[in-house]
Amino acid sequence: MSPESVCTAGPSLALVKYWGKTLNGENLPATPSLAITLGGVRTETRVSLAEQDSVSVNCREQEPARYASFFEGVRRALGVSAHFRASSTNDFPSAAGLASSSSGFAALAGACAAAAGCAASLADLSAIARTGSASAARAVFGGFVLLPAGARRARPIAGPEHWPDLRIVTAITTESPKPVSSRSAMEATRADSPYYFSWVKESVALLPDALSALENRDLELLGETARRSYSLMHGAILGSRPPLLYWLPATVALIHECAAMRAGGIGAWETIDAGPQVKILCLERDAAAVISRAESVGYGIRTITCYPGPGLQYGAP
Length: 317
Hints:
Elements: E1 5-9, E2 12-16, E3 33-39, E4 43-50, E5 54-57, E6 60-61, H1 64-78, E7 83-90, H2 100-115, H3 122-130, H4 136-139, E8 144-147, E9 155-158, E10 166-172, H5 182-192, H6 196-216, H7 219-238, H8 249-263, E11 269-271, E12 278-283, H9 284-296, E13 302-308, E14 313-314
Helix pairs in contact: 2-3, 6-7
């Protein structure tokens, strides 16, 4: 048995959303995405060499077919023939709309390279991670990260130090896995939603405002751009056949609560991925108020406060 290699990664929260793949079968994004790698939550992955590939997440063995193309991509990219035994744990709900696949495949890419004795660059690890989950290409890097449409790897835009007082209050509406995976819902949206191609076009148009807002640390512009992005994405998802609605009553209540906070002078802008969870952008000075208001909505909501975090980290924390 080979020694374990350990790698940790934070999930990648897209502000301009990724939703849709190109049609060439290489898991390339159809839309550009601008994201924050979150600190305060993480995936830890331990990998050793083995006779055959296997993955467990939170002590549950995973379906090998889900990871087969990823491991083949690892071997091809690194020029090795090794197989890997991986054990991954998340300290936040898995498969529940909190981007666990982004941190999971990013940490897995880093740990596999280390276990195989390969000194891969972050750019190469980004391309490897993308074969498992396109958003994982972003989670390899820390801070603020761009994954262009059609790109094989992401690129960092600014480090965590660029905006140290930015906070992301994650309001967890349920601990349960979502009923339809992002991968399945993404394909259904592309295949059946009459709004899909409008969504792709509008995503490209949103990116300049998001990049400008990030450069100038303009939270209002960034927040409003993020709100439009998630609204357009979920509109396209609702256009699938059959329609798919990830939101719960608590999700809708939090959207209204964020609007009430903004009307009352508290800077709070929500964004929602493919799931029912709500992430609220705010500044450190408003975080306590945002947490209190979000938890007062009811429905058993609990919150986790995150911030712009690091990229891949090696070794046990």
